[in-house]
Amino acid sequence: MSSPSAPSADALGALASGETIASTLQGTLPIDALGWIAIAAFGLALLTRWSDVAVPARPIAGVAWLLFGTYWLTMVPYYYYDAQSPLQTVLALAALPLCVYTGYLLWNGRESLFVLTKAVALMGLIYLPAETIPIVRQWLIETTAVQTHYGMELLGHSPGINEGANGYESRFNFDSEETATGRTTYIVLACTGLGSMAIFGGLIAAVTAPLRRKLTAFALAIGVIWLLNLVRNVFIGLATPHGWFQQDLVVSLVTTYMGAEETRVSYLVAHNYISQLLAVVALIGVTYLVVKILPEVLEPLEEVLFVLTGTEYDLETALNPDVRTDGGSRDP
């Protein structure tokens, strides 16, 4: 969700309307193209491994991870200067060394990382079409805007929806003269919850398990994410115009250390601090629920932990020693 000064546009609106930020690296490529190249490289590595051809799959996968890390590095200027999100900035900065290390491990023979590689490739196939195909992006954004507006109406607010800075019917039409901040918000692709859905969709699709349990886990994850995302959008959409966080101390801290406009403080606190931190907690909770149904997803999660710590983990035993990854009981 973005917060323009009604009715002006900002950088996030430009991104959501399909204008890509050019890569900051030499020999620049549009970010969307770089993302597709990385996902295509992942797919080539997996296809090569599956077909057992002479060309080794591990070096190809290593290059794919390097491209994927580079993709996130190109997002750092946007997260820092435009979105002003400390959490997303740190994660984007950390992505490159972590991806390079993952590629290095694969190149040097850690075959178990191919499950994580497959998961990331599938995540990209879920997310990138919405990012790069205008009609898909428009449908997701406008549908989310309508649902969020309905949530506001349940709480007694009915501002209406008009065209946001992204060109879609996604802006909540609060009267700037009657609000505490003179600002409102509009829905962008990140507000649809698709990113989180893609993460779980990729993890669930990548593992080997009975289809029934995979579909059950997928439906549960998508349903919970959709509901929590709707609550998040309503919270931000109301906190921004009504200035829920415009207290003097909060305004002083955010304007001094983040360089933000005073009228944008409620949006930044609601979106970049409260909502993003709670989103991390929510993802952990959804992961727990999915694992209860589909413990097979622990395998790629164990690989993530190995990349982060260099230590082998047995999450299956640690979380529930009585459950096998095939869904049965360890007891005879």
Task: Give a description of the structure.
With 332 residues, the chain is mainly alpha-helical. The longest helix has 32 residues. The protein contains 13 helices and two strands. Helix 2 runs antiparallel to helix 3 and helix 8 packs antiparallel against helix 9. About 8% of the residues have low confidence. It folds into two domains: 123 residues; 160 residues, no CATH class. Strand 1 and strand 2 form a beta hairpin.
Major sheet summary line: 2 strands, antiparallel
State the separation between the terminal residues, measured CA to CA.
51 Å
Order of the strands making up the biggest sheet: 1-2
Total E-strand runs: 2
Low-confidence stretches: 5-29
Rg: 21 Å
Helical residues, percent: 55-70%
Give the SSE layout.
Layout: H1 11-16, H2 31-51, H3 57-73, H4 76-82, H5 86-107, H6 113-132, H7 134-154, E1 161-163, E2 169-172, H8 194-206, H9 211-242, H10 248-258, H11 265-293, H12 298-309, H13 315-319
Helix pairs in contact: 2-3, 2-6, 3-5, 4-5, 6-7, 6-8, 6-12, 7-9, 8-9, 9-11, 10-11
Record keyword descriptors for this entry.
two-stranded antiparallel sheet, 65% helix, mainly alpha, 332 residues, single chain, 2 domains, 2% strand, 13 helices
